[in-house]
Amino acid sequence: MSDAQIELTGNLLLATPALRDGIFDRSVILLADHSADGGAFGLILNQPTGHEVSHFLNKPEFEALARIPVHVGGPVSREQLTFSAFWWNPKDGLHWQIRLPAAEAIQRTRQPGVLVRAFIGYSGWTEGQLENELRHQSWITAKPGPNLLGKPHDQELWADILKSMSPFHRLLADAPASPELN
Predict the structure, then answer these.
(1) Which of 11, 40, 113, 172 is the most buried (most CB within 10 A)?
(2) pLDDT below 50 — which residues of the chain?
(3) Topology of domain 3-168, per CATH?
(4) Between helices 156-163 and 167-174, what is the axis angle to 10°?
(5) pLDDT tens digits along 92-136
(6) How far apart are CA 60 and CA 7, in angstroms?
(7) For the whole model, what pTM was predicted?
């Protein structure tokens, strides 16, 4: 398959152990947009900051969003806080809205089955960059499952998804973070 035929929008990227240093270590990224000639855009789902929106936005108009957890979405534009909504449709899978205005994020929090998260930064790739990283086996691609939104979006998410894929992936998930220290 040529790079021009690869379409990964809606897939998850799971970092391989080759990316064990830095922001992508054991990360799970939802690719919200991808094309071979336009690059890719996504959000790291499993890097909570330990803060809630109220830590960053404490004005009365943001009160309905105050308890929403803030995650690191990636290394690009880390000075921006954005909202995203995720929901599962049994007919056609995972849906999302990225970069929601606060008013729309508030509306989405009131809808059953919708998960709203705040993100600092995002993950982005220029034309051909992600395809090159895939050729170098830096990422494992996976389809999101219906239980994705019900799982904690923390460091355990990476291992949970890998363990569900195959016996080989289970071995990767169970390997120590730094095998050279064993």
Answers:
(1) 40
(2) 1-4
(3) VC0467-like (3.40.1740)
(4) 160
(5) 999 999 999 999 999 999 999 999 999 999 999 999 999 999 999
(6) 42
(7) 0.90
The domain segmentation of the chain, as residue ranges, is 3-168
d(CA 165, CA 61): 43
Q: Do the beta carbons of residue 42 and residue 32 sit within 8 Å?
A: yes
Under 8 Å between Cβ of 66 and 52: yes
Residue 124, both tokens: 């982005």
Burial degree of 163 (CB within 10 A; 0-12, 13-18, 19+): middle
- The per-residue b/e assignment along 37-50, b for 16 or more CB within 10 angstroms, e otherwise, is eebbbbbbbbbbee
What local confidence, expressed as pLDDT, does residue 33 receive?
A: 94
Q: Sign of dihedral through CA atoms 72, 74, 79, 85?
A: negative
The number of residues in the chain equals 182
CA distance 94 to 63: 28
Cross-strand bridge partners of residue 84? 117
Q: Identify the residue whose tokens are 């404490």.
A: 58
The full DSSP string for 5-41 is G---TT-EEEE-GGG-SSTTTT-EEEEEEEETTTEEE
